[in-house]
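ok trying this again, last paste got cut off
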Amino acid sequence: MEPLASKIRPKSLKEFVGQNHLAGEGKPLNVAIEKKHLFSFILWGPPGTGKTTLAKIYADSLNAKFYELSAVSVGKEDIRKVIREDIKDYPKVLFLDEIHRFNKAQQDFLLPYVERGDIALIGATTENPSFEVIAPLLSRCRVFVLYELSKEEIETIIKRTGFKIGKKAVNWLINMANGDARQAITMLDNTSKLYKNITVENLKNTLQSKFLRYDKAGEEHYNTISAFIKSMRAGQPDAALYYLARMIDSGEDPKFIARRMVIFASEDIGLAQPTALVVANAAFRAVETIGLPECGINLAHGVTYLCRCKKDRSSYDAYMKAMEDVKRYGNLPVPLKLRNPETKLMEEMDYGKEYEKYPKESYLPDKLKKRRYLSL
């Protein structure tokens, strides 16, 4: 039986909900579809945000033959079959879900076909392609970032399912979905098969009755990494080690775990213990050089250390405040005294004049002179 998410999948951008920065009028994918522009690109974003749907809409609009494969279960021979298939007058669009699961050799194999235009590649990934996609392939693809759907967008999608559902149940479902439309739709579909009415209680019962499994591209992936990070933040090594072991045992990429540890070292520990970043980077390097299963020991070493460190988010919070001002005010003029007088004209314009190495006066742009981001 066809899943509900597939039945109600939008067939055009007019029906598509969310990702207006890509699919809205005048935006990149919208323009590409209007102009019938065939090119390769990568869709990077959380699960349930429309990656597969956008790929299908794009291919259909170009009247292309659409091949949908998952990097989890296919190899070079599957790609060869797509290349060898003799179709005339129709372009080939290969949608490769979880492209980050392809190793370097497999990605290298794709490269000449993409370069020659034998196929237009659309890769989908929940992981940062800068880390997971080889540079030559990445340079031949545009990268489009997708974001979690808003509560309003999830509500719109819920209404499209056609189920009769009360406001409280809608709100519960929106919060449970956490920006993942597929999760909301699947929960509705499963509940409707178990119960006559869709209520908050019945939705909760359906959620609890699910067979718990670790889906590296789905909800449990995000739930577990969230629990892992929060356990380190709370200084609970037992809990952090449990979630670490759970991820390793389920086949999670250890580099994904190690990257989160490096981020955590600066975001949550920061100035309280600067060596945390050194240890986290060393753990990441160990993962790269040692590999599984032994690198699990290195990760455990790093995790217990990070748990025991004192926590200080001041540098992270200060950076976020500075970023807010950058977005609010744009590129404010750099004070003249801080500019390099590289030419005689610049010197005459007072570039670098009265520069002091250790001044009391703020070096911030004039509009932000009184701003303080870091509280120590």
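PB: full thing came through this time. The chain has four domains: 4-145, 151-209, 219-308, 314-368.
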